[in-house]
Amino acid sequence: MCIDLHTHSIYSDGSCTPAELVALAVANGLRGLALTDHDTVEGVEEILHLGAEAGLAVISGVEISTSLHERTIHILGYGVDPANAELQSWLVPLQKGRERRNAVILQKLQDLGIDITAEEVEAVSRCGQTGRPHIARLLVAKGVVDNFDAAFRHYLGRHRPAWEGRFSYSAVETIGMIHRAGGLAVLAHPGQIDPAMSALPVLVRELTLLGLDGLELHYPAHTRKMKKHLKALAAELGLLATGGSDFHGATRPAHRLAGKNLGFCPPCSILEQLTARLNGRHH
């Protein structure tokens, strides 16, 4: 049986509601699920409730973009209390940073002769956190680029004509906040940070000293070789090994939700180990 601990909903840049995510997880035969929207816990209470009704083990989550030595990394927070007032107010500057960046990106696109309005972006986003993926979808819809990846390659990615940075906390601040909200901090898709795996061991060792609890081992883009490296690193440093698809629905159709017969199936033992670590922390 499989689980999927890395998914996104309409509350950030996914296309599914929490109810649709739960229904899909049940249809795919998943035993466990986590909603890890970007910089928000807005949909977490909803999915915890729906998951319980469906007999699915759902764990709370969030994905936070952060930085370490000028390098952008994503940290997943598992088991955080979505009602934690400090966490909610701590997330606000990240959310406001997204809003400011969106406005600058749209202006840069206008300067390039590409007409996308804030109203159009809001219509695509519907609710929750709006970001570059929503703008990318409009670039595809308007025929400016052929596909989602091309939008980032030609316009929205780092050092591209419409690129704009945004506020982020440091890795140590992020890990500290996740811990104060009762959660565990896990490095998302480490193979994406450093495909050659040359700089990663040093980076992960440093993050472990800062309090990192785990590594996302099972990820669709991770090769067998990457997984072997990551597994050894996690074992050496006493880190949890987690896994998830990074499912976004229609926003990024290449990332399908995990499932027994779908070629990507993180094992249930991951959720058991994660839950045991969380329970140990809470006692």
List the helices and strands and how they pair.
Elements: E1 2-7, H1 18-27, E2 30-35, H2 44-53, E3 57-59, E4 61-68, E5 71-78, H3 85-111, H4 118-125, H5 132-141, H6 148-156, E6 169-170, H7 171-180, E7 184-187, H8 190-193, H9 200-209, E8 214-218, H10 224-237, E9 240-243, H11 269-282
Parallel strand pairs: 1-2, 2-3, 4-6, 7-8, 8-9
Antiparallel strand pairs: 4-5, 5-7
Explain the overall architecture:
- The protein is α/β, with parallel strands linked by helices.
- Helix content is 45%, strand content 16%.
- The chain has helices spanning 18-27, 44-53, 85-111, 118-125, 132-141, 148-156, 171-180, 190-193, 200-209, 224-237, 269-282, and strands at residues 2-7, 30-35, 57-59, 61-68, 71-78, 169-170, 184-187, 214-218, 240-243.
- The strands form 2 sheets. The protein has a 6-stranded mixed β-sheet. A 3-stranded parallel β-sheet has the order 1-2-3, with helices on one face.
- Helix 4 packs across helix 5 and helix 5 packs across helix 6.
- It is globular and about 55 Å long.
